[in-house]
Amino acid sequence: MKFFIDTANIDQIKTAQSLGIIDGVTTNPSLMAKEGIKGEKNISDHYLKICNSVKGDVSAEVISTDFEGMIGEAEKLASLHSQIVVKIPVIREGIKAIRYLSSKGIRTNCTLVFNPGQALLAAKAGASYVSPFIGRLDDIGENGIELIEKLVDIFNYYGFGTEVLAASIRNTNHILRCMEAGADVATCPLEPILGLLRHPLTESGLEKFLADHKKLND
Ligand code: E4P
Questions:
Q1: Could you point out which of 86, 125, 186, 188 has its C-alpha 20 to 30 Å from the C-alpha of 54?
Q2: DSSP the chain
Q3: Which domain holds residue 11?
Q4: pLDDT band, residue 210 (cuts 50/70/90)
Q5: Is-catalytic flag, 87?
Q6: What is the pLDDT of residues 109-148, one digit of tens each?
Q7: Tally of domains in the chain
């Protein structure tokens, strides 16, 4: 399973990259706003900074909701850097845009996916990734992990090349469950990734090893 970091914060991206286990970055307009990045030029510069801080795909989202607008934005974003994957919402115009961009060799990440029907249309249109938002489904009492399981089964059954990119991950358990479900990618903030390292027996075991070594060597 690939790991993307879900942030537009350059320090966090660099920290994750330094661990050597990060395969890319996802952003969205809310994450960009959180970093205070505004205006076309600053936004483009920030995407470039992200691409230069990490190896792997960097998802950059369009703001337009009409076909022409999405295409225009997507072409500009894709021309910024070869690592850019254009994030397009799963709406009617978005599906048309994904089909068009895929025919031009521009990679896309179809976002805001909440059911298998939306994912099917995105895959048929040629999306490189679909992003099911598991945390937001859990927030409304649905089961986000079940959606990942279904999408992995459906895409395998039909042999779609589209990758299942589990998004809106809120905790370490979400990551483990995505791994069990066979998600191609999990995108998450840094903390849940670091949470994978934590186990009380690792901590107490290491403490004991170091104490025993110290007893004889001090
Ligand atoms: C990433 O591609 C998504 O935009 C992100 O994971 C959404 O996460 P949230 O539901 O925590 O805002």
A1: 125
A2: -EEEEE---HHHHHHHHHHT---EEE--HHHHHHTT--SHHHHHHHHHHHHHH-SSEEEEE----SHHHHHHHHHHHHHH-TTEEEEEESSHHHHHHHHHHHHTT--EEEEEE-SHHHHHHHHHHT-SEEEEBHHHHHHTTS-HHHHHHHHHHHHHHHT---EEEEB---SHHHHHHHHHHT-SEEEE-HHHHHHTT--HHHHHHHHHHHHHHHHHH-
A3: 2-216
A4: very high
A5: yes
A6: 999 999 999 999 999 999 999 999 999 999 999 999 999 9
A7: 1
pLDDT for residue 192: 94
CATH of the domain at 123: 3.20.20.70
Summarize pLDDT for 3-58 with one digit per residue, the tens.
Answer: 999 999 999 999 999 999 999 999 999 999 999 999 999 999 999 999 999 999 99
Q: What is the C-alpha to C-alpha distance for residues 180 and 183, in angstroms, rounded to an integer? A: 8
- Position 218 scores a pLDDT of 84
**CA of residue 68 to ligand 1 center, whole Å:** 25
β-strand partners of 110 = 88, 130
Q: Distance, CA 25 to ligand 1 centroid (Å)? A: 12
Task: Please tell me which residue in 34, 87, 208, 214 is annotated as part of the active site.
Answer: 87
For the entire predicted model, the pTM comes to 0.95
CA-nearest residue for atom 6, ligand 1, is: 168
Kindly give the distance from the C-alpha atom of residue 168 to the centroid of ligand 1, in angstroms, as a whole number: 4
State the Cα–Cα distance between residues 176 and 49, nearest whole angstrom: 30
